[in-house]
Write a structure and sequence with these properties.
It is a single chain. By secondary structure, the chain is α+β, with helices and mostly antiparallel strands. The chain has 14 helices and 17 strands. It has helices spanning 9-17, 19-22, 34-41, 76-82, 98-114, 153-160, 180-195, 209-223, 235-245, 274-277, 288-295, 318-333, 348-356, 404-417, and strands at residues 2-5, 52-60, 66-75, 86-94, 119-122, 124-125, 131-132, 134-137, 164-175, 199-203, 254-259, 262-271, 301-309, 337-344, 360-371, 391-393, 399-401. The strands form 3 sheets. Strands 1, 2, 3, 4, 5, 8, 9, 10, 11, 12, 13, 14 and 15 form a 13-stranded mixed β-sheet that branches. Strands 6-7 form a two-stranded antiparallel sheet. A two-stranded antiparallel sheet has the order 16-17. The longest helix has 17 residues, at 98-114. It is globular, with a radius of gyration of 27 Å. The model has no long low-confidence stretch (mean pLDDT 89).
């Protein structure tokens, strides 16, 4: 087996197309559009690489077949904002072979060490603002738009390669239907409107797309800045993402909260176009476009991807006002389900909000990581603390104290001290 750095267009396309070898046709995995995925990796098309660098790796067996792939990634914006010399691994795909997995992770470690990085986490594809995590629970359910799907054995490969789980991300499933939530949300939203008379909850308008986009950038970078792993989106990154997702946007599901004309909160839910992408097998042309147009009309679920309010206006009912408008619009359009994802395992407030909306955790994802310092080899270990002085339960079920050696040493020390001034025994 050999690990090769991707350096040619042919190798890049092999990197892009490799997942089709991992997932059978009946897998819940949703193939990405090949052109879209290649654009994510492109240094010319993706503005993320203006402040980041990467190295892609392929693992070949002795017969020249590809057994796995991985990327080593450094996001300098993350390092500066988080004050943490942490790199990422991403785009990991591998057959169930521990030697291949270890070799791929080792290649990432070596490359990151060469760039003076102290540790790494992942998978980030390629950043915390994109798809991330190994699937931890929910292996029989297809992923929603911009969420990952990975085989269960990836968890074992990561752990046997020396990585440890450091974070969990939750996905909630919520039914969209007429129920008691509507009246409850209406009451809270009405109370918020009384307290904040200049509050306006509006939906995105096609003729104000650029202005609403700027508002979304401002709110996101303010509302999420204290979250784990957060990195501010640059104007170029957000614009590129919006351009990439523009065909997926349903304007009635982009909710913006305004106070005196200034944006203070937003809620963005995308139709789950993965229901369409499953039918395309990575290709939009020449015939995929007809499938796209046909199946997009049959999408029946959403992914609530972004919801936040800037700090000074939180807990004033604005979040509820946005939920109310979003739920009513979803009912009018005809959606049946909504996934709220992802939610951090320690984000108690968002978890409570999801539960208030009758949401239930139905998928979990895991972030893994490891330090890049020199490994420590353990040459001796014991099942107790205290060195030679410790308690244990003997065969008669009596708690005994193993202090005989210590007492012997003290007696010897005391005896020698009679003839030499050796001080006290500590």
């Amino acid at each position: 087996m050999r690990i090769v750095k991707v350096g040619t267009k042919e190798q890049l396309m092999r990197f892009v197309r490799f997942p089709w070898k991992i997932y059978p046709k009946d897998s819940p995995w949703v193939p990405p559009l090949i052109s879209d995925f290649a654009g994510v990796l492109s240094k010319d098309k993706n503005p993320f690489w203006m402040h980041a660098k990467s190295q892609l790796f392929l693992a070949y067996d002795d017969n020249g077949n590809i057994n796995g792939r991985i990327a080593a990634i450094i996001d300098y914006n993350y390092i500066v904002f988080q004050d943490d010399k942490c790199g990422f691994f991403g785009f990991f795909e591998c057959f169930d072979d521990i030697e291949t997995a270890k070799a791929l992770f080792s290649a990432v470690k070596t490359w990151l060490k060469e760039h003076s990085i102290d540790k790494f986490i992942g998978p980030m594809n390629p950043s915390t603002n994109d798809e991330c995590g190994f699937l931890l629970e929910g292996f029989d359910i297809p992923p929603s738009l911009m969420m990952t799907y990975t085989p269960k054995y990836y968890l074992r490969l990561a752990e046997e390669s020396g990585l440890k789980k450091i974070k969990e991300l939750y996905a909630y499933d919520m039914d969209i239907k007429e129920d008691s939530r509507i009246s409850r949300l209406e009451r809270v939203a009405a109370a918020a409107k009384k307290k904040l008379p200049t509050l306006e909850i509006k939906t995105m308008q096609k003729d104000s797309f650029e202005m609403d986009l700027k508002a979304a950038i401002s709110i996101y970078n303010s509302a999420w800045r204290k979250n784990w792993g957060f990195v501010p989106w640059s104007d170029e990154e957000f614009a590129a993402l919006a351009s990439r997702l523009k065909i997926f946007i349903e304007p009635r599901m982009v909710i913006i909260a305004m106070i005196s004309g200034s944006p203070v909160g937003m809620l963005i839910a995308f139709p789950d176009y993965n229901q369409v992408l499953r039918k395309l097998n990575g290709k939009l042309f020449p015939f995929g476009i007809f499938k796209f147009l046909y199946y997009k009309k049959r999408i029946n679920s959403l992914r609530l991807m972004v919801m936040g309010v800037i700090k000074e206006y939180r807990h004033k009912g604005i979040e509820v006002g946005m939920y109310e408008k979003g739920l009513k619009n979803a009912l009018k359009i005809g959606y049946k389900h909504c996934e709220l994802s992802w939610v951090l395992d320690d984000n108690i407030m968002t978890q409570r909000t999801a539960e208030m909306m009758n949401g239930k955790v139905y998928k979990k994802y895991a972030i893994y990581g490891t330090e890049l310092n020199e490994e420590v080899r353990i040459i001796d270990s014991r099942d107790h603390i205290g060195g030679k002085c410790y308690d244990y339960w003997n065969k008669n079920k009596i708690c005994a104290h193993n202090t005989r050696r210590l007492i012997f040493l003290i007696k010897v020390w005391q005896f020698i001290s009679r003839f030499e001034n050796r001080g006290t025994f500590n």
